[in-house]
Design brief:
The protein is an alpha/beta fold. The protein is built from 21 helices and 16 strands. Bound molecules: nicotinamide-adenine-dinucleotide and magnesium ion.
């Protein structure tokens, strides 16, 4: 996994325009290979081509590719035929990922119409030359795996590339960081730590379930990158998200000799990112921390957004801080060892992300458990996009981020009344369904939406009914208790239709809600 992102595709696919937008979004330098060649040759591409011929030009492309590839990762817009040479392709694929931009010949021709004089290989009748060029290169172009439809506007195409790569750059909290989804990412986490400027020593925090599975891999990668690394293992489970465990972490930081520039690395689920995140926020008034989430819930939710904290005996997450990590690295392979119940619970939050902002993601979830389980990396990348865009718009939970609370007002109450026997995601599944029924009753949601959500949840093996034995009145009381805490109003985030949610809805008639709970 090297850092470069190469955009490739025929003339008119938007490599340069999309490339510069993508580079800006990811805070990476941008390089346009053709512009680079024009600079070193001191003449335009058509002139270079006329003077040196096609082969001479390809030779220049090969040299340019080599010359621009040392140094930090960048977004590179390639020439439309620059990977025809095998050695160029091998070099690009070794040094980064090639993203192929796809567009139909009709769209390409429209775009090229405007500036055909800059495209020497398309001289003559534009449509005819384009057709023959595409035919000539078809098998070559078809052979690239990572493909993105490039017919939309460049901003949307750049976002689609981010979704298909699982690569985001968050900056709204003032201390920017990358969130990345990388196959085998744990093998190279040490290099990524270096790239984001974190210093050692590193204290890796993990729990008793996760450490035996993955801690060695991470420590080895840290050592290969030249870090002195220590491990502290905490007990697994929410009941240990406590000040006692925090005390152990602070002490372990001292024993490992961590200073302000040093780094805490969290390897595990949401418990194991909330706690070390808070330890990092407070140790020496703030040191670096990075998150390597290993549960689906943490990959798509807990590890993103810089909320850290711990529980008090009186309630969950009562003490905490907003303190962004320096890196969030998700390795979807770790999900292969996650117990199925945890995976399904995480899927409830994924489905929620789909309902509130990404109908396509909802549709993927609606294909049922087997399809979803076979497609987890894709799901993680897509679900992260939803959370990232909401927390970037509203890092400190003042407004739009409230959309993420869909299903949670009722969900939290159900979770509490179940005595935490239900996993958070299971309770949120029930909460989403009850709240959508409420939204339908109130005329906010399209009719039929609750049934659509119910069917999708059931297909994922998530609960769709409040378990018998959980008194509805207790659930209502728990909602009302929440209401007292938030100065007399419980605000719901309710869906209107797939992809659209309305926030800050106050429900005056809680009796009506009780009826819905009974249904
Ligand atoms: P968790 O951290 O308790 O992990 C669940 C269980 O799975 C644990 O027993 C853990 O040891 C095990 N596990 C984790 N990864 C594994 C793997 N790859 N293979 C095998 N076992 C594995 O729970 P969670 O559901 O990930 O997170 C819940 C926590 O996240 C809660 O404390 C919640 O408050 C918090 N949270 C925080 C935020 C936030 O914004 N900070 C958002 C949502 C949730
Ligand atoms: Mg949640």
């Amino acid at each position: 996994m090297s850092g470069h992102i190469f955009l490739y595709g025929p003339s008119g696919s938007g490599k340069t325009t999309v490339g510069s937008i993508l580079a800006e979004k990811l805070a990476l330098p941008f390089l346009d290979l053709d512009a680079y060649i024009e600079t070193i040759c001191g003449e335009s591409i058509p002139a270079v081509m006329a003077g040196r011929g096609r082969e001479g030009f390809r030779e220049l492309e090969a040299q340019a590719l080599c010359a621009c590839l040392d140094g930090r990762p960048q977004v590179v817009a390639l020439g439309g035929g620059s990977l025809l040479r095998e050695e160029n392709r091998a070099l690009a694929e070794a040094l980064g990922q090639v993203v192929f931009l796809e567009a139909s010949p009709r769209v390409l021709a429209q775009r090229l119409q405007a500036d055909s004089h800059h495209r020497p290989l398309l001289a003559g009748g534009l449509v005819t030359s384009l057709d023959s060029l595409l035919k000539e290169r078809q098998s070559h172009y078809d052979s690239f795996q990572l493909r993105v439809n490039a017919e939309g506007n460049p901003e949307a195409v750049a976002e689609e590339i981010q979704r298909s790569m699982g690569y985001y750059h968050l900056r709204a909290m003032g201390a920017p960081y990358d969130a990345r989804v990388c196959a085998n990412g744990l093998e190279s986490c040490g290099d990524l730590l270096r790239q984001c400027g974190c210093e050692g020593p590193v204290l890796l925090v993990s729990d008793k379930q996760v450490a035996p599975l993955y801690a060695d891999r991470v420590i080895e990668s840290f050592n290969r990158a030249g870090y002195q690394a220590h491990l502290v293992v905490i007990p697994a489970g929410e009941e240990h998200k406590s000040v006692e465990t925090l005390m152990r972490l602070w002490q372990a930081c001292l024993e490992a000799g961590l200073e302000r520039g040093s780094t805490l690395a969290a390897l595990g689920g949401g418990v194991v990112s909330d706690l070390p995140g808070f330890a990092a926020a407070t140790y020496m008034r703030g040191c670096n921390w990075v998150a390597f989430p290993t549960t689906l819930l943490s990959m798509v939710d807990a590890s993103l957004g810089g909320k850290t904290g711990f529980d008090l005996p009186q309630g969950k997450n009562l003490v905490g801080a907003f303190y962004p990590p320096r890196l969030v690295l998700s390795d979807p392979q770790t999900l292969s060892t996650l117990p199925q119940r945890e995976l399904r619970a995480g899927l409830a939050e994924v489905l929620k992300h789909g309902v509130i902002a990404d109908p396509d993601l909802f549709v993927i979830c609606a294909h049922g458990w087997e399809a979803v389980a076979a497609n987890l990396p894709h799901i993680v990348r897509r679900a992260q996009a939803v959370k990232v865009s909401l927390i970037e718009a509203d890092p400190y939970e003042k407004g739009p981020r409230a959309a993420l609370n869909f299903g949670h007002t009722i969900g939290h109450a159900v979770e509490l009344v179940s005595g935490y026997r239900l996993r958070h995601g299971e309770a949120v599944a029930i909460g989403m369904l009850v709240e959508t029924r409420l939204a339908e009753k109130l005329g906010i949601a399209e009719s039929g939406l609750a049934e659509e959500i119910r069917a999708a949840l059931a297909g994922l093996g998530l609960p769709v009914e409040i378990p018998a034995g959980l008194p509805r009145a207790d659930i209502l009381r728990a909602v009302q208790a929440d209401k007292k805490k938030s100065k007399g109003t419980v605000k719901f985030a309710l869906p209107e239709k797939l992809g659209l949610v309305r926030t800050s809805i106050e429900i005056a008639d809680l009796q009506q809600m009780l009826q819905i709970l009974e249904e």
